[in-house]
Amino acid sequence: MRSAWRRTLALLSLALAAAVLLGFAIGQPWPALAAVALGMLAWHYWRLRRVLDGLTGRRHREPARGDGAWDELDRLLHRNQAEMRARRRRLLGMLRAYRAAAAALPDAVVVVDRNTQRMLWFNRAATGLLGLQHPRDLGAPVAERLQHLPVARWMASGRNAEPILDAPSPVDGRLRLNLRLIPYSDEYWLLVARDVSKLLHLEQMRRDFVANVSHELRTPLTVVHGYLDMLDPDDFPEWRPMLAEMQKQSQRMTQLVEDLLALSRLESRDSLPEETVAMASVLATLRREAEACSKGQHRIEGRDLAGCDLLGSGRELHSAFSNLVTNAVRHTPPGGRITIEFSRDADGGAVLAVHDTGPGVPPEHIPRLTERFYRVSSSRSRESGGTGLGLSIVKHVLGLHQARLSVHSTVGQGSVFACHFGRERVHPRHDQDVGGTTP
Fold it and tell me: Which of helix, strand or coil describes residue 63?
């Protein structure tokens, strides 16, 4: 570009010098110089217009072949335009590929404008699962087109919207959908609907199988217990160790069957009967159960700091709390401390927390603690008599009460298992003192 600029300046200087010489030769230097200058200006204007036409015009043309500054500028602009066209073709190709991939997904995908909650685009699966029709429903409000689904209040939650795990399809009530709202930018959301009919059917089959097998195991276990009770170890001294082990294992299997039946019963229910659960008596009962399980080997404390009761199923809540307390006693070495604390949180809800000074749980195990039969240490769990279903039962009981379980643990220092209840589950207590502590 620099050399082209020099050549252009040299040509301009040469033209002006020739105009001066020609002017002196004819005796009119200034008119000759002005005429040449005007010609040069007209030529530059013509080149400038040609460049502007090349920038604004849509037709493709060959770049200039000269070696002047304007020719070099024309070639640079032509090259930049060619690169921009190639980049645009690549972007359009990628956009078409992404759009084709989204259109081919088996899940229904709907792009929603965040502010107006109108549908901007949806794929083919949205027609089969949600009943949306192209182009009729483009630009229509989501809540208006999906009136059979609870999406109006759900979408109002925005980024805090929890997935809808089971909802009937507007097209076919036999199809069950899982709905998720994914905010992928400040202006647009993705509404994703997945057909989970087969998964729910398989899950129901699994629940039925577990419930039926557990129920059928009750009878043979009862027979085994009956015969074992008839065998007195004093009559068969040589069989005493074997009889004791058989009693222990049969009791463990009975407890496993009872836990499986309880879990199946909870999974098959969508709600529980509600009553006012007197937490003062519940805490006292939990403390007595912990002392009975501990047999004097631990220090048990109870703290009632909430001064309120809970709305829910007293039987199921006691079962969940008892599981947490029993686990704390089983996994805390003798001489440790277990604290059962019932308090309020900053949001107006209530929290029942069980603190222990046990060995703690490594961080990588915490997310899986509520899985069935998951054990941090299988040998330790079997020695303590656990079935591996306690925390799974706790999770389901809390889910039916719109509550959640949190776990905080430090290896070597202990753990805190806390049940968090929303303010809608809190019931005022008028006949108990606030801040009571049970030593």
Answer: coil
